[in-house]
Amino acid sequence: MTVHDSDLNQSRSDHYDASPLRDPIAANHNPDVNRREFLSMTAASLLIAGTVGAAAKPDRKNGIPYRTLGRTGEKVSLIGLGGYHLGTQSDAEETIRIIRTGIDEGINFLDNCWDYNGGESEIRMGKALRDGYRQKVFLMTKIDGRNKAAAAAQISESLRRLQTDRIDLLQFHEVIRDSDPDRIFSEGAMEVVMEAQKAGKVRFIGFTGHKSPDIHLKMVAVASKHGFTFDAVQMPLNVMDAHFNSFEKKVLPVLTKDSTAVLGMKSMGDKIILRSKTATPVECLHYAMNLPTSVVITGCDSLTILQQALSAARSFQPMDSSQVAALLAKTAKAAEAGQFELYKTSHQFDGTVANPQWLG
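RE: above sequence
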C-alpha cells in the first residue's frame, strides 16, 4: 500500500545538495525563469514570511515551539509525528520508543489514519499511548468512509485500535476526487462524524488531501453551503508546491482568512523532493514552518530521523523575505512540471484509488 500523508525525512548526503543558498536574482540568469514571473510567483510567500517573522515569540516546551491550532484555541507542537511511517518500522517496540521519545522531547501532535498499514500504525500508537501518554498529546486520525456505514465502522475501529474514547481531531482522508466533497456531505459520512462529536468521541473535524488545491477549495465551499466550517485542513506545503499547482498560493490564504488551522504535510514530498538536490531536509522543514502552519507533520521511522525533526523545530527562526526568495529560486526549475510532487501528478500515493472499497 502506498498511502503517504506524512514525509520520510532522510539525512543521507546523496539525497541533497548541501551547497549554500544562492542569490535569488541568480535564478533569472536561466532563460527558463523570467524575473517578472518569479517575483509574482513568490510574492505571497514573501508576504507570509514577513507576517510570521513579525509574530510574537512562540510558546515552547522542551525547546519545541508551540502554535495555536486555528480557532480551536488548542496549543500544538510545531512539529507533528506522522503516523504512516511508524507502521513501516520492522520492530514494533522501536515504534513505541519513537512515539514516546517524541512526546518526552516536546511533541504533542500525533497524526494517524484508519487505513495506514492495514491498521498497524494505529495499533502501535495505541500501545505507545498507554501509561499516561494519552493525556499528554493531541491525537488526530483520519477515515476514508464517504457514507454512514463506512464512516461509523472506521471511527469505531480507530477508537479501539488507539485505545482511547476520544479523538481530538478526526479528518476525512484523501479528498482527492472532484466528487469527494459532495459524497461526504450527501451520503451520511459528515452526519456520522458530527454525531460522534456530539457524543464526545470526536472533538474537532477536518479534512486532508494531496491532489489538487481546487478540490480543497471545493470541499471548503461545499461545507459552507451546508453551514459547516472545518476546524482544520491538511495539505502539502513545501518548496516545490510553491511553484506548481500550489496549495500555498490557492488554499492557504482562504484558510488563514477564516482562522482555520493549517496542517502542513509532505514537506519533503515523501523524500522525493530531496532527490532533486535543491534543498536539504532541514531547509524543507523550515520552509513549511515559516508558513502560517499550526503544525508541520513529518514521518519518522527511526530515532535518528526523529532527532533530525526535533532539531529542525528547535533551531527554526522566522525566515526573512530574502531567505524565502533564495530557497524558492533554488527549487523553481526543478519544480515547474511537478516531477518531484508525484502525489499531485500520479496515483502512486492514492490509497483509496487502489482500494475504493475503503470509501464505502
